[in-house]
Design brief:
913 residues; alpha/beta; Rossmann fold; Nucleotidyltransferase, domain 5; Alpha-Beta Plaits; six-stranded mixed beta sheet; 23 strands
Length: 913
């Protein structure tokens, strides 16, 4: 061995679980879950790349039973079995260790932690040092001058000061604290009522456990003293359980753990079998032997040794800023990020701006940092001077500006007077176009997934809860580390995600739908829509009066008064006092009273649950719209400004919040009243343009159903035609009930409705509903073929595809639990239809954004709500706009049936719709 060996020990067992829960589900080309394997492989790759030690081993648990179970049979006895998707990954992770040429060590009867402790002490004994790749608190007792931990996710060392911060004592006293506080996760009893803080205080005062127990009889009488007296033996057992064994026979001698290069062909073959082709590229092991898998595309990482994240530069001089601007122009690209004083982009003010021109090359420009008494903010550039220099760069069409969630930053810059920023790319939308539903699209999650890096969190620099400070008061060194890293990460994500658009056949979705919508939606958010505040206040008062009347009636039906907003009290009345059937208790022991429970009771003829549902609906409308819209109204303009979320849904649909304008009931009287409160400015009217039955049209097209396609082509009543086809009833003189049943099936099929669901909707026996569905599929077998084909596609690939190429991932499609799998299958069937409709209206919005400026019409697009667009237009231009909208929307896509758009004009939204 070398004179001073540096042994790196990987806590394999601990890392497996962290990787499994940190990374989204992934599958190998063979269909085996591999997210934990992929995380483990990336960690090993990093260790070998960075040459962090002279000796290396991965330590595993050999089994669940160890010598500690002899000390206390309760030890870890209550731990659940590992998740089903993790079980097959244990063996694969051991295969990974062998493929990398790293010793994988385990020993029956001993925990991995004991082996780690014994190897750490062994290397200390020969004058070496040890790094333990783990953040497990149980290993912190080993920390010393020659032993440290390394957090495998955060890549931060854990030394004596970090242990002191966590336990309140030095590493050599950790076992004393653990013995007192116990550990419910492992069934270590400890002393009831003594937590980390109290345990640390006792250890600091008395020294160790035995000294504390010896002093207990003389302590001041208290619950803590009595607990120490009553549970002294539990504390001693706990100390034995938490103390790591440092004298375990070493399965492999230290000399055998020397680091060595892996056998290239063996490693490449194993990585190829797993589908980890980005790792093959990163390690320069040659071309992959098989095509990239969908799962592996998500896990792509940059090739080669990436520069470190930081240190970064703080720009407080105009000459330095000019050098960064020149560097951006020379690079032809620049990642940009803003720091602000609000999450509401429309009202946020700039606090600082970050730039990145290459991986590892990033800087922060503080603009409005206040500083603190302890640390002044220091010299900062004037906002106007910075924007005067940056604006030409932001408008320079030879320099690509890269953002993560560009719409937010564009709105912030617009608030500051910077209107022109082009060309742009958005890493959030690049990822979303490729992987909607597969994982979240936030920067931190994408950085972990694609860069194997955990960015500095906002909470780290600003604090949390009552201790949180505005970002403007964060000291400049910490603000720079956080903010510049965001720009750096964004630039690196672009390097990874841009090639993936073509590989995943998502380039058209991104280029023609998602990216053009950024500016369109930002403009819609800035415009907002006018609301009639007096009408909303009258509505709120009316809702309150009606709710009070309902409450009186509900109390009468219940036989006593109670809090209608209390699920617990309602459950007691329905199931304890009234004895209604079908009640189920939640895990907390209370009766479940959600809407599905109440609806089932209401459908069975119970009046009280039906009235509660009515009261809840009215209460929601009052709080969510009648009251909230007045509060959210801009005092100067009388308009409300929703925020459109571009990367949230699995299907590509937009969503909106603050306020959410997509959940207003359409067919109820109250929903109509709320829509009447959205009005046009004086001299203007609202125009609504709504796709008619667009998802049914897509179903007829993708399932190639001749009779339905013919009905749409002829402009027939599709529900009457379906009723005629399925039930053998002539179109002429068809009764409303038969048409209603056909309509329920038509729309229900899109969402995978069951016989039970149809029966409840039509209030008929389930057997009769089943006959209707069977007759439907018998008449239209192509629909069942489409459903079967789509389910198989989802199971095989993990995603389905819209007619326009958007991938919609379906979590849970391979679930073993039948209920969850069934839900995922229904999602898979609906996603191409709902996603196709979302694609079509996005294409229409892009077409209209190009036509309107040159149309001569005084009109602007205000809202998109699912299949509907809402415009505000000068009264005399309304008919021309309605015709323009109809033409562009109907021509937005060509499918096997005509697209039909219905338009309406009115002074308020209800009239226009």
């Amino acid at each position: 061995m070398s004179d001073a060996p540096h042994l790196v020990l990987v806590d394999g067992s601990g890392f497996i679980f962290r990787a499994f829960h940190a990374l989204p589900p992934m599958s190998s080309p063979e269909g085996v879950p591999v997210n934990a394997v992929f995380g483990f492989t990336n960690m090993l790759t990093r260790l070998l790349r960075d040459h962090v030690g002279t000796h290396l081993a991965v330590i595993f648990d050999a089994g669940r039973t160890t010598f500690r179970n002899e000390i206390d049979p309760r030890y870890k006895a209550h731990r659940p079995e590992p998740p089903e998707d993790l079980i097959p990954q244990f063996a694969l992770i051991r295969e990974a260790t062998a493929a990398f040429g790293v010793p994988g060590i385990e020993l029956a009867g001993w925990e991995a932690d004991d082996l780690i402790a014994s190897y750490a002490r062994a290397v200390e004994a020969v004058g070496g040092r040890c790094t333990i790749v783990s953040s497990d608190k149980d290993l912190m007792q080993l920390v010393g001058p020659k032993v440290e931990l390394l957090d495998p996710i955060k890549q931060k060392p854990i030394r004596a000061e970090e242990v002191m911060a966590k336990f309140g004592v030095t590493p050599d006293k950790v076992i004393e604290v653990q013995a007192l506080m116990g550990d419910s996760t492992d069934n270590v009893p400890g002393v009831p009522g003594i937590g980390p803080k109290g345990a640390a205080q006792l250890v600091q005062e008395y020294g160790d456990l035995e000294a504390i127990l010896a002093a207990a009889p003389t302590m001041k009488k208290s619950k803590r003293q009595q607990a120490l007296l009553d549970h002294a033996e539990d504390a001693r057992i706990s100390r034995r359980l938490v103390t790591l064994a440092c004298d375990v026979p070493l399965p492999e001698p230290l000399e055998a753990l020397g680091t060595r290069d892996p056998e290239r062909d063996t490693l490449r073959a194993w990585l190829d079998r797993m589908g980890f082709h980005s790792v093959i590229q990163r390690m320069a092991l040659g071309a992959a032997a098989t095509p990239r898998t969908a799962d592996e595309e998500t896990a792509t990482a940059p090739v080669g040794d990436a520069p470190s994240f930081g240190p970064y530069e703080t720009i407080t001089d105009l000459e330095v800023l000019d050098r960064w601007i020149d560097a951006a122009r020379q690079a032809g690209r620049c990642a940009v990020d803003t720091e602000t004083d609000s999450l509401n982009a429309r009202t946020a003010s700039l606090v600082g701006i970050s730039l990145a021109t290459a991986p590892g090359k990033a800087a922060y420009i503080p603009l409005r940092h206040d500083g603190t008494l302890e640390q002044p903010a220091g010299h900062q550039l004037a906002v106007d001077d910075v924007l005067a220099r940056l604006s030409p760069l932001l408008a320079d069409d030879t320099v690509l500006k890269i953002f993560q969630n560009a719409k937010y930053d564009l709105l912030v810059f617009a608030n500051a007077g910077v209107e022109t920023i082009a060309p742009i790319d958005d890493t959030m939308l690049m990822s979303y176009a490729q992987s909607a539903g597969e994982h979240g699209q936030g920067m931190d999650e994408l950085a972990q997934l694609h860069l194997d890096h955990t960015p500095i969190s906002y909470d780290t620099v600003t604090g949390t809860g009552r201790n949180r400070i505005p970002f403007a008061r964060v000291p400049l060194d910490r603000a720079t580390a956080y903010a510049a890293e965001d720009a750096d990460v964004t630039l690196r994500l672009w390097d990874v995600l841009r090639p993936g658009l073509r590989a995943r056949q998502s380039l058209v979705v991104y280029e023609q739908m998602e990216r053009p919508l950024i500016g369109i939606l930002a403009g819609m958010e800035r415009l907002g829509i006018k609301v009639d505040a007096p009408e909303l206040r009258r509505m709120s008062a009316d809702f309150a009066r009606r709710m009070a009347e309902m409450e009186t009636d509900i109390h009468r039906l219940a036989g006593r008064s109670f809090n209608l907003g209390s699920p617990k009290q309602l459950g007691e009345i329905l199931f304890d006092e009234m004895g209604l059937p079908g009640g189920k208790r939640t895990k907390a022991g209370a009766w479940g009273t959600d809407s599905s429970v109440l609806q089932e009771l209401a459908d069975s003829g119970q009046e009280l649950p039906a009235r509660i549902l009515e009261w809840r609906q009215l209460a929601k409308l009052k709080s969510t719209y009648a009251d909230a819209l007045v509060e959210q109204m801009d005092d100067g303009s009388g308009r409300v400004h929703t925020s459109f979320q571009m990367a949230v849904t699995t299907t590509g649909r937009l969503s909106s919040n603050e306020p959410n304008l997509q959940n207003i009931p359409i067919r109820t009287e109250e929903g109509g009243r709320i829509r009447r409160a959205f009005v046009a400015e004086e001299g203007y009217v609202l125009v609504s343009a709504d796709y008619s039955q667009i998802e049914l049209r897509l179903l007829a097209d993708v399932a190639d159903i001749g009779p339905l396609k013919e009905a749409f082509a002829l402009g027939q009543d599709i529900h009457a035609r379906t009723a005629s086809e399925v039930f053998g009833v002539p179109l002429e003189g068809m009764d409303a009930l038969t048409r209603r049943r056909a309509k329920a099936i038509n729309f229900g099929i899109i969402y995978g409705i069951s016989a039970f669901g149809l029966a409840r909707q039509l209030q008929i026996p389930p057997g009769e509903a089943r006959r209707y569905i069977d007759a439907y599929f018998a008449r239209y077998p192509g629909i069942r073929d489409y459903m079967d084909r789509t389910r198989e596609e989802a199971r095989a690939h993990g995603f389905v595809t819209t007619p326009f190429g958007r991938r919609c991932y379906v979590p849970g499609i391979r679930e073993k639990n039948g209920a969850r799998r069934g839900y995922a299958e229904r999602q898979a069937i609906n996603a191409p239809l709902q996603g196709g409709a979302a694609d079509i209206i996005k294409r229409a919005m892009v077409r209209l954004s190009r036509r309107l400026p040159g149309s001569g019409l005084d009109a602007r697009l205000l809202l998109q709500v699912h299949d509907e667009l809402l415009f505000e237009v000068r009264r005399e231009d309304a008919q021309a706009l309605a015709e323009l909208a109809r033409q562009e929307m109907e021509q937005a896509a060509r499918i096997g049936v005509p697209l039909v758009v219905e338009t309406g004009i009115g002074s308020n939204w209800a009239e226009a719709h």
